[in-house]
C-alpha cells in the first residue's frame, strides 16, 4: 500500500480519522462503507445510498450531526465498486 493509504473497511476507520486529523481540525467523525458489483454509475450510487438508508447504523451516520462529508470510490479489475463515506463535524 502507498503512503497515506489504508485498507477499505471499517477496521481501518481509526487510521483514516488520524490521517484526516493531520490536515483538518474536527470534533467528531463517522463512516459508511459499501461495495457493489458493476452497474451503471447512477444506478450504483442509488443502490449504495439506499443500502445505507436501510441499515440502522449507516442511517444514523447519514442523519448525524456532521458538517462535512466526502465520498471515495474505487473500482477493481473484477468490476466491483467500493465506496467509503467519511463524515466529520468541525
What does this structure look like?
With 90 residues, the protein is α+β, with helices and mostly antiparallel strands. The protein has one domain: Pathogenesis-related Protein p14a (3-Layer(aba) Sandwich), CATH 3.40.33. The protein is built from three helices and three strands. The protein has helices spanning 13-21, 41-54, 56-62, and strands at 28-37, 68-75, 80-89. A three-stranded antiparallel β-sheet has the order 1-3-2, covered by helices on one side. Helix 2 crosses helix 3. The mean pLDDT is 85.
What would the keywords be for this entry?
Pathogenesis-related Protein p14a; 3 helices; three-stranded antiparallel β-sheet; 33% helix; alpha+beta; 90 residues
Task: Give the oligomer, counting copies of the same chain as homo and different chains as hetero.
Answer: single chain
Largest sheet: 3 strands, antiparallel
CATH topology: Pathogenesis-related Protein p14a
Q: Tally the helices.
A: 3
Regions with little confidence, pLDDT below 50 for 5+ residues: none
- Overall strand count: 3
| Strand order, sheet with most strands | 1-3-2
**CATH homologous superfamily heading:** CAP
What does the radius of gyration come to? Answer: 14 Å
**How big a fraction of the residues is strand?**
25-35%
The proportion of residues forming helix, as a percent range, comes to 25-40%
Any idea what the CATH architecture is? Answer: 3-Layer(aba) Sandwich
Give the N-terminus to C-terminus distance in angstroms: 29 Å
Please, how many domains? 1
The backbone outline, from C-alpha atoms, is globular
Q: So what's the CATH class?
A: Alpha Beta
Give the averaged pLDDT, no decimals.
85
H/E series: HEHHEE
Class by alpha and beta content: alpha+beta
Amino acid at each position: 500500500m502507498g503512503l497515506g493509504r489504508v485498507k477499505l473497511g471499517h477496521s481501518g476507520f481509526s487510521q483514516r480519522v488520524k490521517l484526516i486529523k493531520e490536515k483538518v481540525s474536527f470534533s467528531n467523525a463517522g463512516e459508511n462503507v459499501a461495495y457493489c458489483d458493476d452497474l451503471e454509475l447512477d444506478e450504483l450510487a442509488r443502490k449504495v445510498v439506499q443500502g445505507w438508508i436501510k441499515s440502522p447504523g449507516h442511517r444514523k451516520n447519514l442523519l448525524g450531526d456532521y458538517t462535512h462529508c466526502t465520498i471515495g470510490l474505487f473500482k477493481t479489475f473484477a468490476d466491483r465498486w467500493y465506496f467509503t463515506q467519511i463524515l466529520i463535524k468541525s
